[in-house]
Amino acid sequence: MSVTVKRKAHFNAAHRLFRADWDADKNFEIFGKCSYPNYHGHNYDLIVAVTGDIDPETGFVIDLKILKDLIKSEIEEPFDHKNLNLDVPEFSNLNPTAENICVVIYNKLRKKLEAKFKIEITLYETPRNFVTYSGS
Ligand code: NI
């Protein structure tokens, strides 16, 4: 019996979307206000979903304390109140769009969770704009 356990988390971070090989007009045309040179913040909401079998001994799919601590150490501590472009090495050469942040979060957590779990990441950049990634 496969059950999905979810944990919500949150971080605030600054970013700027741009390509260095485009001029300011082209960056504005494609990335809008997110291309402004001096960065701006978003309140990111994160949902991490872990799917697996219920352990008959504990009744858990995964201990939520373990998941909580993992999200804190892997995502909240490195991302919260940071400038994603400047402070987070994964984005030194990768535009920190919601799509790319979602994939980076997935890859970081995938490495730390047992292979038997299926995981899905949902990242809200605004209450109305959000993306989902579950590998492949
Ligand atoms: Ni933005």
Describe the structure.
With 136 residues, the protein is α+β, with helices and mostly antiparallel strands. The protein has a single domain (2-11, 43-133), classed as Tetrahydropterin Synthase, Chain A, CATH 3.30.479. It has four helices and five strands; from the N terminus they run E-H-E-H-E-H-H-E-E. The protein has a five-stranded mixed sheet with strand order 3-1-2-4-5. The mean pLDDT is 97. The site of nickel (II) ion has 4 residues, from strand 2.
- The CATH architecture designation is 2-Layer Sandwich
The top-level CATH class is: Alpha Beta
Bound molecules: nickel (II) ion
Instruction: Please mark out the parts with pLDDT under 50 across 5 or more consecutive residues, or reply none.
Output: none
Give the termini distance in whole angstroms: 24 Å
- From the 3D structure, determine the CATH topology: Tetrahydropterin Synthase, Chain A
Assign the CATH superfamily. Answer: 6-pyruvoyl tetrahydropterin synthase/QueD
